[in-house]
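Review this fold:
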Amino acid sequence: MSVTLGNKIVLVGTGAVGSSYAYSLMNQGLSDELVLVDLNEGKARGDVMDLDHGVVYAPSSMTIRYGTYQDCEDAAIVVICAGAAQKPGETRLDLVSKNVKIFESIVGEIMKSGFNGIFIVATNPVDILAYATWKFSGLPKERVIGSGTVLDTARFRHLLGKEFGTAPTSVHGYIIGEHGDSQLPVWSSANISGTHIAPKLSEERKREIAQEVRDAAYRIIEMKGATYYGIAMGLARITKAILKNEHVILPVGAMLDGEYGMEDVYIGVPSVLHRQGIEKVIELSLNEEENERFAASVQTLKNIKNQVWN
């Protein structure tokens, strides 16, 4: 069956990430219709009112309303931002068991509606929960997409842009792997206008940048309790790539089916996005160290996954 056409979006979860995503959608005029679903009906309805008051200044008209899982029936995309929040001192992987149970209920209700579109998953631990969404939904793997390392890559490009006095949009490089502690920068292909970056940095400086990217969420959570603006913009970018059929490459959470010699795991890798979801996974040419670290990241996620499903 083909993906539902149109650009209706249902957002499940109107916490800090979800409401920031909704705000990003409205500001960019990416959808004609946005439906907010949350157990806290008052919060969701309040968001609807607040967002409605900004539509007059948005680039295009947009219907924003409160709804239920039944509204997913004809949605093009369902974005899940619901779940237990990450607490200070808690790793993303600590969240796994409680959020998998939450997702079994959410995804089950969504599929009962007759939903036949694309899932985008943002809740942490996102790689495990993207896998859970795929398992619970029964949809083809290309139609279940995790936010992956889209935010980590943005942080990487931002830091390299500062390092070299260059706009981050002109920095080409990826963080791949788990959206978490085992992620890795692909220094071997990172470049600015075709000029490789790695030879221009000391090994110590590369380690510092990689650590700053990896630990950014912990620092932000320590200072303000949660991260939400950056990931909201990343989710909006994924949404745009799908709805506009862009065939653009973004580092999202994709199911590996032989790529990189791995299978049966959702993990952050560059992937081509189009109107049907993930068109294909891009296999970067990794050096020996990067291959080893990526394999270790895959194993980290598989160990967690196996604890949940075995």
Observations:
- The radius of gyration is 19 Å.
- DSSP finds eight helices and 14 strands in the chain.
- The helical segments are 16-28, 41-52, 96-112, 126-137, 150-164, 203-224, 229-243, 288-309.
